[in-house]
């Protein structure tokens, strides 16, 4: 029988979810909004501090004046969950790029048959990259209220943290979908 030209659905799912996960994780890594601190004592009522893993910004809600590069008086960037995120988030991004490269070589839509083993390996690499960003996002979330902030201020989860979570989950799901290619190797 002739080999089919169709790319397996699981591979397509993996190749759609993982780049989306990469974009979300990249945004989450770069955007300075893992945590929002508001109602800071002795500060204007409409001031919001946005804290990321690299930068800290202050914004006045009334005027939308936004200033980044704020000084870290409370030692926020010295905290272990922040340090871990600084190491693991970029590592996750690099591993995701590697996984997508391997996946592209494995899926090879332009040839008759995909390389199932390579696609499966790519799936495991992408699964790992998702875990590499899920761990710091989870740990940061767990420690969110313990990280230094002015006493009495209100702390909430920032959008960067949510995007990092979503990106991690998409990479894990996409990686699992590509890892299903191993099933094909076993059949051969």
UniProtKB/TrEMBL annotation:
Organism the protein comes from: Nyctibius grandis (Great potoo)
GO molecular function: structural molecule activity
InterPro entries in the cross-refs: Claudin, PMP22/EMP/MP20/Claudin
Cellular component per GO, a single term: bicellular tight junction
Cell compartment(s), UniProt: Cell junction, Tight junction; Cell membrane
Chief location of this protein within or outside the cell: other
Record membrane topology: Multi-pass membrane protein
Name under which the protein is recorded: CLD23 protein
Transmembrane segments: 12-31, 91-110, 117-139, 159-182
Family membership noted in the UniProt record: Belongs to the claudin family.
Keywords: Cell junction, Cell membrane, Membrane, Tight junction, Transmembrane, Transmembrane helix
PANTHER family: CLAUDIN
């Amino acid at each position: 029988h002739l080999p089919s030209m169709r790319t397996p659905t699981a591979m397509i799912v993996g190749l759609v979810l993982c780049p989306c996960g990469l974009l979300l994780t990249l945004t989450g890594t770069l955007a300075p909004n893992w945590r929002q601190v508001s109602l800071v004592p002795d500060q204007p009522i409409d001031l919001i501090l946005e804290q990321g893993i690299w930068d800290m910004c202050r914004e006045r809600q009334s005027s939308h004046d936004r200033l980044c590069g704020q000084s870290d008086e409370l030692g926020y960037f010295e905290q272990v969950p922040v340090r871990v995120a600084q190491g693991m988030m970029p590592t996750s991004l690099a591993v995701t790029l590697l996984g997508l490269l391997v996946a592209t070589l494995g899926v090879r839509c332009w040839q008759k048959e995909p390389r199932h083993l390579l696609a499966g390996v790519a799936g495991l690499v992408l699964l790992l990259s998702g875990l590499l960003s899920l761990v710091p996002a989870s740990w940061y979330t767990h420690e969110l209220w313990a990280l230094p902030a002015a006493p009495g201020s209100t702390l909430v989860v920032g959008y960067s943290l949510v995007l990092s979570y979503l990106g991690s989950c998409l990479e894990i799901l996409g990686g699992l979908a590509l890892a299903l290619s191993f099933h094909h190797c076993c059949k051969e």
